[in-house]
């Protein structure tokens, strides 16, 4: 037994409510959004909480495009800002995701995935936005995409999302699904000091020396809040180190390359995975979100039935954690990728596979979760 | 002249390449000058002024002025401006947009910004045309006018910007032109000073994309047209025959708090209630 | 052991007091004879119509079991687009171990407050699972061994608040579940409900508990945890062999 510690406050919360706890623990003070099922509780909870948070601001915008615009504005003004959406709302946000990536504006976007294309299945789970999260905005741009499997993880991954956004000056998308968002579980409410919280670096040089998009050691230039004396230009056009539009090939190239490099160089920090019984596994299940929970039970049952099964839970989806996936593919005779779509993350697994092993997919698109027995069938 | 030079040095960016990208005869440079003069007249610190621009010719204005400048996506300037103002109400936030920007693709944002009266000044440069993409009709192109996307003449009617914004609830609505420069300076200074959402429509000719296709022989002729057809709203009201005439001046003056102020007041009331209860 | 490598020690559920079947204190990993406190995986479905407070009931029960008792609980829900009148259900999985699969598969307890719910969900009950129904609203019970109480009538006549039907039923559930404690339920209620409706709801909870004690016999006996799990795994594997 460990020494008795102070009794912590516990709460029985929805995944969506846990996201809010995580966001506030990470220092979020700004929320703009537009209600949409099944993400709405995030917004409602923020509307209740932010008026009591020091400097907290909340606004319900006229649509999801506007929500992202307001979040970008708030972030440029120095706030840790977020929005949340689902389904069609996520499609509307793509334009501004691209703008945030291009202008290197930190923000967190929680997308609670529902079923189907278009209006689809508003109250059912899906995982059909994985590729959209990576490539939804036009043009080459880096992005960080995270996911969470259960309610306590909703807190942890939201904190991680804010930390990555601030550290790498990038929009970060947290992909949840309707089940994770609408499951209630007990969490310990975060308290100050529970998490390491990172805030964007601000410039230390005098304003006249500051170049907002200059190459730095980390590839991430410091970012002052608007109104702090550093007057500079922000644009979604390809820009030079001063932020002014340019079409000079060498300037355009170096901008895009730096934007990719600033993420690529820190895979170790960004790529979060969880290994469950993978050390001696001959069969591996690669899963994320609510499906990872089914996989956990399936792998346990398979072990009990004598199959050396393991589970790799991907909590970072992009940049795709190749260095975790590839060794699994080399060492296992079978890899199974269950997801609530027609095969989106499995494309990445197959891309990395290069003939090492057999990759089998389980795809479910009827608005129901993939059950443990469905997975067990494929691995036993 | 010395005063102009001083303003140039004080408010335009030294590290930005001039001349402006605008075509000869374009009115946008005059609006830029008006913007600088009104900020100067109000004695605002450059660090406290944020210009948020959209896409189009008007959007390029932001890059030249030495304020905090944000060049956003097409139609979304007001959304970003809203976020900035809510995040830091001490800043003076001016959204510079074109007619396509503000009333076509960004029309929804505009009416909602007016309805919620966020403390932002919207400066709309109305040239009746999409200039940067090469002359297509916008939602302010007059009925019957020609453009590349209405080569047989515009069949749709144009938005009356003033009436639209008035109906949406804006605190202030005004219209000026690049011919009536002194008046435009004053309208802008007034709009920037008034709490809540204020819109200034600046009529600015586009000879290249609009004038040439619609019977104007030169840019000068377009300025003359502004001179002859625009008159103060007070005089306009007294006219018997208003055909071909356009009123300029301030149309709406409402006394409201900006949303950012109402938000701050609500927080204060909450804190007081909490303090009282404890 | 799949062992979710989370640094939280599995919460140790406190002993149920008065009504513990064998009266023994649960002492963590006892002798493996399932003394009514260590739960492998216990699945509950609360079901009825939108507007009956099913989701609130699920939240109250889950909160009491998760925070008051220290079990691992996942509560999921299913609802139609209608705010009122459509089918509504809340599912809970309760366990002493971290829960992997959050949804229910085979129910240990089904509470049905409408005819439709009883008919639709009865087939999800385990062979020895318990069915608790509203005696008035479920006219045709799908099982002859259903436990029945007139929750809606009790709420209307004895509490005077028809909207408290769900809490009367919650009281009965608190009695029937051998690992639940009524005090923890009361606490969950007090913490979650607005003050002005709290008294009526506490009354409803106590009423449901007392009525169940008077009229439904002994609390539900728990299945042997160890055996169930292995059986489930075997069941699944047999299924594969036949299907392939």
Characterise the protein shown here.
- The complex is a heterotrimer of chains A (about 375), B (about 280) and C (about 240).
- By secondary structure, chain A is of the alpha/beta class.
- Chain A has 13 helices and 16 strands.
- Chain B has one domain: Rossmann fold (3-Layer(aba) Sandwich), CATH 3.40.50.
- Chain B has helices spanning about 1-10, 30-40, 60-65, 75-85, 100-105, 105-115, 160-170, 180-195, 205-210, 220-230, 235-240, 260-275, and strands at about 50-55, 70, 90-100, 120-125, 130, 135, 170-175, 200-205, 230, 245-255.
- An eight-stranded mixed beta sheet of chain B has the order 2-1-3-4-8-7-10-9, sandwiched between helices. In chain B, strands 5-6 form a two-stranded antiparallel sheet.
- The radius of gyration of chain B is 19 Å and the shape is globular.
- The model of chain B has no long low-confidence stretch (mean pLDDT about 95).
- Chain C is of the alpha/beta class and about 240 residues long.
- In chain C, about 35% of the residues lie in helices and about 20% in strands.
- In chain C, α3 crosses α4 and α5 packs antiparallel against α6 (about 200-215).
- Chains A and B meet through α3, α4 and β10 of A and β2, α4, α6 and α12 of B.
- β10 of chain A pairs parallel with β2 of chain B, so a sheet runs across the interface.
